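Human: We require from you a standard protein entry with sequence in single-letter code and fold as tokens, and nothing else.

Assistant:
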Amino acid sequence: MAKLNINGKIVDVDVEEDTPLLWVIREQVGLTGTKYGCGIAQCGACTVHLDGVATRSCVLPVGAVTQEQKIVTIEGLGAEKPHPVQQAWAELDVAQCGYCQVGMMMAASALIAQNPHPSDDDIRSEITNICRCGTYPRVLAGVKRAAELMTSRG
């Protein structure tokens, strides 16, 4: 039995310690916003925050996460009001098919939390998620807009 802090709530899960966090989030906790893409931490569809750091949950065993660590999924990112990244994505119509966009938004929000004014190069080097639809120019614009919104929030 493991205790996890997911979106500010402590949840008990009864899984093997080597179970990937992604499957615990989706199957045990029922938060299906985080997606399975590749299973080898390459595509980024499974990105969540672990103590504020963008983390690929498909390869992180639940046994490596402690109750003290804070896991945030897309459902927790804008739980009280839309996060600036979510606002920017909607405003600029960033998503196409949308499958990868949850991971993109989680990576983007972690980036602007650490770097409130990222350059194009910062964005390209930090957001390595794969998008089959090729929305990269819109993602770039979305991150910049989200950073503006975040700055204006103060």
Notes: The chain has six helices and five strands. The first strand starts at residue 2 and ends at 6.
